[in-house]
Specification:
The protein is α/β, with parallel strands linked by helices and 391 residues long. Helices cover 44% and strands 20% of the residues. A hairpin with a 2-residue loop joins strand 14 (361-367) and strand 15. The protein has 2 domains: 24-146 and 282-359, Rossmann fold; 149-277, Rossmann fold (3-Layer(aba) Sandwich), CATH 3.40.50.2300. The protein has 13 helices and 15 strands. The chain has helices at 2-24, 41-60, 80-92, 105-118, 148-162, 176-191, 213-219, 231-242, 263-266, 286-299, 305-324, 329-336, 379-383, and strands spanning 28-34, 69-75, 98-100, 121-124, 141-143, 167-173, 195-202, 223-226, 250-253, 274-277, 340-343, 346-351, 356-358, 361-367, 370-377. The chain has a 7-stranded mixed sheet with strand order 7-6-8-9-10-14-15, sandwiched between helices.
């Protein structure tokens, strides 16, 4: 019996040694909670595409620290309650290492709180509400896209220079992002001598915007600012055009309002639209040209802002994990803070004080269905102050 024990032990040891490398090569799991149906499905789709392209490239080049990356998708329906439920499953059942994808700013805030409770890191590549990296900031939440203030600083600077005597009426969706974006625009407008003459907030998935047109006409604006997105953009812009509200009025707004996904449906009403954006497929750099070519080859479409930011996130996470030498939450958190990395949009840096990405902003105008870059604002001028006090 003693001899049998001694014979068994080496086999057991060899078995354990053989198992160790396979454990080390387990894939890195990234959870993606994003709208794949409903009003914001047109935003969730480019988020998915951007992530998938980056992960394909990373895996083809050896993965992250030698480990392959796997994306696990859940549909958040742009609903914070649904987003939390889906994120909880990804954390508890799928044991994801990292989570991203949220579009609705309320979803990002709610999932961020869940990330803290689970000691997991969360990032948005879409949500604009300033509060996410300001008064409601979380040490576990990172934003790699430009927040509302960055967009508004760039846009109001341009309006102040381009349209003398500008009088702006604002239309926003009635939730966290909409109110935050309008507030940020008004703050930027005041700095740049741009007058705001009124505002309305419409529920998500509004079918009839004409009920607000009387207020708009009474205010006599020569510029309309809007931060509606997805399918709501199509209805708003179409109705503004059909009811003649756009005559003699220019339209500006959020970078997520008119995108590659909805510009065809918006049609001629999109012509002349101006935004302060972190991205255009026409950015004239070798890095962006390579990205656009790869994106078109894979998806037969142009990348938009959401696709570019989502693509860049994977490379930020890769750099952080390889710097940390681990997917451990505390180590990756430290590695992400202050991280500088290259993207198709240009170089970005995550500001350590609030986990907000700093980046050059572009003034983009739609001409003949193309997102032309007509100006830019430097990262330091666009970012705004650090208002996070929690960490």
């Amino acid at each position: 019996m003693e001899k049998i024990k001694h014979l068994a032990a080496p086999g057991l040891i060899l078995g354990l040694l053989a198992a160790t490398p396979s454990l080390a090569q387990e894939p890195i799991k990234i959870g993606v909670v994003t709208p794949l149906s409903g009003t914001y499905a047109g935003i969730g789709q480019p988020v998915r595409w951007g992530l998938e392209l980056a992960v394909q490239e990373v895996n083809q080049s050896g993965g992250i620290g030698g480990r392959k990356v796997v994306l696990i998708f859940e549909d958040e329906e742009a609903n914070p309650a649904v987003a939390v439920q889906k994120a909880e499953r990804l954390f508890q059942v799928e044991k994801v290492d990292f989570l991203t994808g949220m579009v609705n700013s309320g979803s990002t805030l709610a999932v961020g709180q869940l990330g803290e409770r689970n000691n997991k890191l969360v990032s948005t590549t879409v949500s604009f509400a300033d509060s996410i990296t300001a008064e409601k900031c979380s040490p576990n939440v990172f934003r790699v896209n430009a927040r509302a203030e960055q967009q508004s600083n760039a846009l109001t600077y341009w309006i102040g220079k381009d349209t003398k005597g500008a009088k702006v009426f604002a239309i926003g969706p009635d939730y966290e992002m909409g109110r935050s974006s309008v507030a940020a625009f008004k703050t930027g407008a005041a700095k740049n001598n741009v007058e705001t003459v009124g505002e309305v907030f419409a529920p998500l998935d509004s079918k009839d915007y004409s009920q607000y047109f009387g207020q708009i006409r009474a205010a006599r604006p020569n510029v309309i600012y809007t931060s509606v997105a997805g399918n709501d953009t199509v209805r708003l812009m179409t109705q503004l055009d059909e009811f003649g509200v756009l005559r003699g009025v220019s339209v500006v707004g959020s970078s997520g309002t008119i995108t590659s996904q909805n510009i065809t449906a918006v049609g001629k009403a999109a012509e002349g639209y101006v935004t302060g954006s972190g991205y255009s497929p026409k950015i004239d750099t070798p890095e962006n040209k390579k990205f656009v070519e790869a994106f078109r080859a894979m998806f037969k479409a142009d990348p938009d802002l959401f696709a570019a930011d989502s693509y860049g996130l994977i490379y930020a996470y890769k750099a952080a994990v390889e710097k940390a030498g681990s997917t451990d939450t505390d180590k990756v958190r430290d590695a992400l803070r202050g991280l500088t990395w290259s993207t198709p949009q240009g170089q970005k840096t995550i500001r350590a004080g609030d986990n907000q990405a700093q980046q050059q902003m572009y003034i983009v105008k739609i001409k003949n269905g193309q997102f032309d870059v007509i100006g830019n604002v430097g990262a330091e001028d666009a970012i705004g102050p650090d208002r996070c006090t929690r960490f």
